[in-house]
Amino acid sequence: MTARSQLERLQKLLKETLAPKLPGVEVEVTPPARWKRPVAVVRWGGFAGLLAEQRFRVVVSNIPAETFERDFHGLIWFELTPGEEIDDYLRMPRSDDVAKKAESLMASAMKSGLAGKIKEALGNDAGESCSGSFEETRRVLAGAGWSKARIEEFCLAAVGRGAYCDCEVIALLIPESAT
Ligand SMILES: [Zn+2]
């Protein structure tokens, strides 16, 4: 079902769903061309500094699950900052890229005391004070002498294990701390 009227309906629905949550968001749903399925492009300044998979998480977590299943299932998604192109997004690294190193990255992060230091920075209610990014994760690992490239790999590995932000990294590394 990719009739143009159907895509226009989806575009309108997507914009109405996301606009209150992501101020200034722009949305475009286009017919299959480069891919066999219709494409949804979500443009938002707040995606800057986030990994591709973190961006998709932001979109999905701001659409009610039943709406996503019913209306948006089957689209190909791109979450871009205002200046980016789809090809920029395609070049972004993914958690799969570091799958083989994930185990040793986790072990090194634990050795660095990452979870405890993030907890210290975020305070008692980490879920509340978390910025939804890897800001503290990056800061702590940089302080422990990790290179920028290795920090990036750790963040990708965390995403591959279901941790998309600082408070989820705490829960990932200290499972019993999950609230
Ligand atoms: Zn968080």
Mean pLDDT: 95
Number of strands: 3
* End-to-end gap: 41 Å
- For the CA atoms, what is the radius of gyration? 18 Å
Q: Which strand order spans the largest sheet, edge to edge or round the barrel? A: 1-2-3
In CATH, the topology of the largest domain is named GMP Synthetase, Chain A, domain 3
Continuous helix count:
10
Task: Summarize the helix and strand pattern as letters.
Answer: HEEHHEHHHHHHH
State the helical fraction: 40-55%
| Gross geometry | elongated
CATH architectural grouping of the largest domain: 2-Layer Sandwich
What is shown here, in short?
Helices cover 51% and strands 8% of the residues. It has 179 residues and is mostly helical.
Commentary on this structure:
Helix 8 (135-143) crosses helix 9. The model has no long low-confidence stretch (mean pLDDT 95). The protein has helices spanning 4-18, 52-61, 65-72, 86-90, 102-111, 114-122, 126-129, 135-143, 148-160, 166-173, and strands at 26-30, 39-43, 76-80. The protein is built from ten helices and three strands. It is mainly alpha-helical and 179 residues long. It has two domains: 4-90, BolA-like (GMP Synthetase, Chain A, domain 3); 95-177, no CATH class. The longest helix is centred in the first third of the chain and has 15 residues, at 4-18. It is 51% helix and 8% strand. It binds zinc ion (ZN).
